[in-house]
TrEMBL record:
Organism: Jaculus jaculus
Domain of life: Eukaryota
Keyword annotations of the record: Membrane, Transmembrane, Transmembrane helix
Protein name from the UniProt record: Sodium-dependent phosphate transport protein 1-like
Residue spans crossing the bilayer: 20-43
Length: 65
């Protein structure tokens, strides 16, 4: 009876599986947030590169003549 190993069960809240699931959830949220930031950054960069009012300096001179 004394040689038997005690089978202590780890509590469900602190198990490795749930800890890994929470960690991976936060990793996925971070990756999704980075994707959203990149999408917004690209839209902002494209909207600010409107050069319709700026004359092109290279088109003023004809370099082939």
């Amino acid at each position: 009876v004394e040689n038997q190993l005690s089978t202590s069960k780890v509590s469900e809240f602190c198990s490795f599986r749930y800890g890994l699931a929470v960690l991976l959830h936060f990793v996925n949220v971070g990756i999704l947030a980075q994707g959203v930031c990149v999408s917004l950054t690209l839209v902002t960069m494209v909207n600010r590169t409107d050069t319709s009012g700026v004359p092109n300096a290279s088109a003023v001179k004809n370099l082939d003549a």
